[in-house]
Amino acid sequence: MDYFAQQLINGLVLGSIYGLIAIGYTMVYGIVGMINFAHGDIFMIGGFIALITFLILVSFGLTAIPLILLIVLLVSMAITALYGWTVERIAYRPLRHSFRLAPMLSAIGMSFVLTNYSQVAQGARVKPVPPIITGGYTLHEGAEGFNVQLSNIQIIVVLTTVVLLALFTWLVSSTRLGRDMRACEQDQTMASLLGVDVDRTISMTFVIGAALAAVAGMMYLLYYGLVDFFMGFVAGIKAFTAAVLGGIGSLPGAMLGGLLIGLIETLWSAYFSVEYKDVAAFSILIVVLIFLPTGLLGRPEVEKV
Amino acid sequence: MSASPATPLLAIRSLRAAYGKIEALKGVDIDINAGEIVALIGANGAGKSTLMMTIFGRPRARSGHIEFDGQDITGVPTHDIARLRIAQSPEGRRIFPRMSVAENLQMGADATDSGESDRANSLERVFALFPRLKERMTQRGGTLSGGEQQMLAIGRALMSRPRLLMLDEPSLGLAPLIARQIFDAIRTLNRQDGLTVLIVEQNANHALKLAHRGYVMVNGLITLSGTGNELLQRPEIRAAYLEGGRRE
Hints:
The structure holds two protein chains of two kinds. By secondary structure, chain A is mainly alpha-helical. Chain A is 72% helix and 5% strand. In chain A, helix 3 packs across helix 8 (198-224), helix 5 packs antiparallel against helix 8 and helix 9 packs across helix 10 (251-271). The radius of gyration of chain A is 19 Å and the shape is globular. Chain B is 38% helix and 25% strand. In chain B, the strands form two sheets. In chain B, strands 6-7-8-3-9-10 form a six-stranded mixed sheet, sandwiched between helices. The radius of gyration of chain B is 17 Å and the shape is globular. Classes of the chains: A mainly alpha, B alpha/beta.
């Protein structure tokens, strides 16, 4: 039971990271109807920028950890958002009125570009960081010496995710930008007839998605203590799986899917095989696509009056 | 209004537009003066809806000019045209099905950055015309009946306090009683607030009785124009659009 509780905690933390990335997939799909395959690499870029910002701040002699983390978070979100904006601008917008597959192919190309650019610029080796946030709590002392632990970094990951999700939900449901985004998702032509700048709204969607992915990248860095140029690929596909599982286009679905994929992967690793954890996650993708193509919270494709 | 009485609020000159290779507008001239209700009638596929959309730049005009209040808007981006307070209740209504009625109306108000008091006034005006919408404020647009959706589409257009209101087939698919309510609402808006209206209709009888002036469109060209009454008397109009003929 203790072991299971521990895995639940671990799965929840991993699921939070997946969920933050999955929101970017599902938002972009909702508004422009394409899968942004470069989104996983945007997450990777976010991790790198967090690392670089961290090292710069430390080399300046900054020691207050909470201040460092806050600056790293903001810088990483801002610069990664710029990457997201740029990717849309140069790789997707020119293809907006092209055939449906074109931006998807362009996205895969963009993913390779970002991966290789990071490899060239930052090197192929894994970049470790010493543990920045240490300590934690023992929730329960087991009889056989197994203790259920909740580390501070886990608390921070989950809390940050909850706060960001609350902010993001408020943005989408109650602000002008959120309303414009939903209008563009439902009927771009009508939105423009009502004065909505569709191009700008789509850009903002990429910016917000990238900023959330940057937070995920930073959390990944803090939690696992490393980044590498290839980490966007697997994490990206897992988050994509999460978005599909939750119902692509659905924002609560993305978060739910993220948590489920995180839990499934963690529990599979804990009880069956660590080596095959990716197989578990991707089997879910295949099963969902075959038997539940609209996902858990997605809506049926046909909805024209 | 800053336009002098001589210049029309909307002036369309030799406008051509096409979808791909299919030319939908083949040189259209139309004037709409401030304070007028102008009806555009014609059969299915004549290009009436295309004309309304081309005023908004969707599709872009191939040639010709569109001037609103003396300003050439032929090449202005669609969303900036909306900001000039031209509003449209388009073909098919196009309400946002997964937004509440309140949000749909708010989208209309957002179009012109109206202040809080303007927004409240517009909302009162919409509720006065269509009390039904008030009861439905929290309901999703997609769950409304056809008539309610039509009211919502018109209400949304009114929320931007338009200087020119364009209505595409406001009576399409509605029960006669509701259609009459909508026509009455348009007449009220015109008489009380001096609202300028361009109305596209297949229901020529209703539209021409409502309108000060009318244009008849056939295959992308204006073939006739005149006051509403004049057009109603013309035998060819009666034959084509009023007495059976190609009416839907």
